[in-house]
Amino acid sequence: MLLDLRTVQQLDLAAVVADGNYAKEPIVETVTGHGLPFISRLPRNANLNDLYTGEHPRRRGRKKKFDGKVDFSDLQRFDLVSARPTERVWTQVVWSVQWAREVRAVVIQQIGKKGQVTGYAVLFSTAVTMPAHEVMALYRSRFEIELIFRDAKQFLGGQDVQLRSQQGIEAHWNVVLLTLNLCRLEALRAAGGGQDLVFSLEDMKRRAYNALLAQVILSNLDLSARFEE
């Protein structure tokens, strides 16, 4: 599938972003083998090593490559990217033992009211030259995609299909996603455009149902609506 995407000239892929469940060796090797960076989330017990950057002693044998295991509770070897009252971001190029390659790790710490670290998340990118803020922006863009699948399944019957053929299932999902896109377009027009759109398909379905119910009541009582509502 990734190879097919690379052949589509209209697509300009910056990276492949996936949930932490897909951060497996076969997927990472497949994506990077097609020349695409892979961005995902690491578990807190990820097996990472610090890269040795000091002077190499004059002795026989291979030069020292690693300098201990990464400890996320002690980020002295990481570079501070940004610090806000509620969040601190650290980054460093480290060695992934699982994939036997260098990756850029980005640690996002949540800061409490008293300045203590209340939690953290670890992101990574196989493109070690990618800036930390770009890794964060690309990974957080997944959130909108997850909302699309949630709305399609919960409110538009994405899984309520009794078709077995691939063509029929694809047609069903095309109709579901088309309906979702039209609803988002209507909400965007109602809000006057802008990037701060708060979209809720559940609210739109409720308003549409209420409008339909009001029309049924008025038509059965042979009345006309006196108010726009």
TrEMBL record:
Residues 7-182 form the Transposase IS4-like domain. It holds the Pfam family DDE_Tnp_1. GO terms for molecular function: DNA binding; transposase activity. It comes from the Bacteria. GO terms for biological process: DNA transposition. Transmembrane segments: none annotated. This is Transposase. The lineage of its organism: Bacteria, Thermotogati, Deinococcota, Deinococci, Deinococcales. Keywords: Plasmid.
